[in-house]
Amino acid sequence: MPDTASLIRRPGWRGSRPLAGLPSSPLAYALLGLAVTLAGWNFVAGEAARREQSRQRALISRSDRLLSTMKDLETGMRGYALTGKPEYLEPYADALNRIGDEAAHLDAFDRTALDPAVAALAPVRTLIDGERVFSDRVVTVRRDQGFHAAAALVETGEGKRLMDAIRVATAAAEQRAGEALAESERYDRLRYAILTAFSLLCASLAVTLLARLALVRRRESQRSSGLFEGVLANAPVGLGFLDGDLKIRHMNRALATMSERGFGADLGAPIWTLLPKLEDQLTPLLEAARDHGLVSADVPISVPSESAPGGARHFRMSFYPLQQEEGPAAIGVGVVVSDVTTAALSEAQVRAGEALLRTVLDTLPVGVLIAEAPSGRITGHNARAEAILGHGVLPAQPGEGPARWVGFHEDGRPVEPREWPLIQVVREGEPQAELEVDYQRGDGSHAWIGFAGAPMRDPDGKLVGGVVVVSDIDARKRSEHVLAAAKEAAEEANRAKSEFLANMSHELRTPLSAVIGYSEMLQEEMEDAGQADLLPDMKKIEANARHLLGLINDVLDLSKIEAERMEVYPENLDVAATVRDVAATVEALVEKKGNALVLDLADGLGGAYTDATKLRQCLINLLSNAAKFTEGGRITLSARRQTDAEGDRLVFAVSDTGIGMSEEQVARLFQRFSQADASTTRRFGGTGLGLAITRAFAHMLGGDIAVVSREGQGTTFTLTVLASAAGGEEIHAPPGSSSGVPRSDDQAVQGSEVLVIDDDQATRDLLARFLTKEGFHVATAADGTAGLEQAHARRPRAILLDVTMPRMDGWAVLRALRADPELGDLPVIMVTVLNEQNLAFSLGATDYLQKPVDWVQLKEAMERFRPKPHDGPVLIVDDDADLRALMASQLSREGWQVVTAADGRTGLTAVGEHRPRLILLDLMMPELDGFGFLRLLRTRPEWYDIPVVVLTAKDVTADDFRQLAGQADRVVQKAGLSFSDLSALLKTLYEADPTEHQHGGLGSDQADGSGITTLSG
Questions:
Q1: pLDDT exceeds 80 at position 501
Q2: Which residues make beta-bridge pairs with 100?
Q3: pTM
Q4: What value does the mean pLDDT take over residues 979-1005?
């Protein structure tokens, strides 16, 4: 068998290059270059050293000649001086002639680089000139004056001195030149030896490396040949070579295995030996490769095989010419054979899977679109997609049918191209995209269609496309629209219900307030007329009216709870004080049936941040319930603080020794409008709403209520609430909002003094000077005790109070002031470095300023307490004529001047004409309601400081509180407000004698004897 490598070698292969076998090593070439460089350096440096040595020798030679010439000059001069014979002048003249040449050589040495020898010769030129001049003088004196004169001149020693100096200079120059010459020769020998040795070493190493590299390359070539043979033998594909007769000359192991399993050919025979039908298929391809150099790739061949899956084995054959380097003629044909039986079966399975997938896609109830990335071009879809869309999925060509991909959002906006999920996932890389649109189908009709897109990625995570699911959601969307319309209608009904509740609150409570007011007024008139026998009847009327008002309040509270309009107003409170206050409130009710009320308060109750009104109502409801069903027994109210995993909680328990309940009665205890049984209702009365409302309030406060009862032994209700109403919105009511008679932040008290209580002398002086400058009379106190004494003695208009003071701090002073009936209504402004506003306001402070004092803020705060230079009437703005007349009559009897108005617009006119001292305002009125009245009132700077008290039967919500904040000074519920309370409120706001203003001040309005002016809108 011929060499396989020679059969497959082709022109242009790496092995056929002329210098392909030349060893190559950068290190070896670098060493050779270094050796040559060192040799060149050695040569150049040697030449330079030789030139330097020649120069030093020339210097020595010239120095010797110069010294010899000078000696000749001196000898001729001395001989002529002694003898006077002219023949001595001949060597003298010759020496003078030679001295010029020697001096010229010396000048040449002087111009060279620095050299110790040359430097030693530097003074010789001067010495030579001196010696020449001296010799010339001696000769001249001997010729002109004789021997003795010349001898005298010689005896001066000048000539000898000059010659000695010349000898010393030349000797030094020769010595230094000799030393330099010796040093140069030594350095030259050393350099030559080192560079020569190093150059030879580099050359030797380079030769060694090149020799080793050549050996390695030869071994690599041998190993590569062996590897190539191994690759041919062990290649996973079949490799074979055919000779010029198209007979097999070589087969590797893989091709031999394929031959055994398939076509059954052997060496020295054609491939089709056992399968003659292959001859017609393969012969033209093999001849084309052999004769024309054509390559045939991936020719499919199938042969029957019992061992193959499916009974047939599938091959792919490639044929290429085998050419020698010497010429273009092919000497044979190379064959590459791959067994693709498994791949063919896999392809068949894939085709079957694709067909199955197509069947599945076509039977899906949703449409499917498949697109490539990043172009977004749709490459596949099912029939359902076109059915849902009503047109083809590909973009329409010009003039081809209706427009495609036209959709609209819920608000009618057209869908932009970038908004379609297909574009978002394949171009913008979104992980998923969904869109529901009102789609314009191919026939022009509209239907709601949902599009949901997701990206497709290859195993490496690269985005290759996207798939979009198209769903017909028309029925669902239309149902949603119907539901949305129904929801909107329900919300509208809920809003109507809320409005109805507000109106009913006003319409029911207003006449009841009038009944209560008239009953109070009649009681006073009966007392004045001496008709005491009628007082019990009137008190029953008042009591029943208040009872009816309580029932209406319960029903309205329950309605607000059901409508989720009941809100929580958290505030800081002292738990123990609140419990004691509740006990004092229900004490008379408990004692009515001979019961005893016992308080059991645990230590460490501390404070809480919750809705004080709702907490009080819960406790009052439970205590009232216990008092109702207990006679001659004991009722216990206990309170404790409990901290556990669920947080900080307050636990209240109300226990009684009353009639108790059965398990069946306990089961329906908290049902609305339900009591234990009918006999209980007949015997004890009640509506069955109290406990239901109590449980609802408990839930709103973050807790619950539980009950344990034994029939005939008594009942225990346990109320649990969060100590801090965290998570609830803190909604602040306007200052002084209350259902009773509150304190005023804009009080005007008798006198015009301001009392400053502060232990710091400098602060007292600064505040006093500032307030005096602003027109106030100022009194000061250095501590809390002295401040309380002065407050009693002076009754100041307002108090500025510090917190941190000795003996008695500001908090204690504030508590004492608020507990004092005479001083409780005095405005108190805290002025301190502490940031304790919540504590200050909870204790009843009117305002709060932090040190260092901002004088602008202090001035603004004090302006409210400056004595007013004018007086005016009380303005009542209410659309209820009966209530207007009733309030006007009561206030006139109390000595107040009154102006009334039937609506907001008429009220504003009255404000402009009369400048009232105070406004009593209803909220719900025609034309312009109370909110609008307040907004317009507060826009006028001259009316901004008029106090406004809101008297309303409307349930004041959190939104109402926000609207009233900063505009109304007080919010007072009409329900339950007696006219004595109203009069007390006015007196609290303005502590002036109302009888002083009974007459006059009516302007052009009609006034009757009662001091009442009525304006009709």
A1: no
A2: none
A3: 0.35
A4: 43
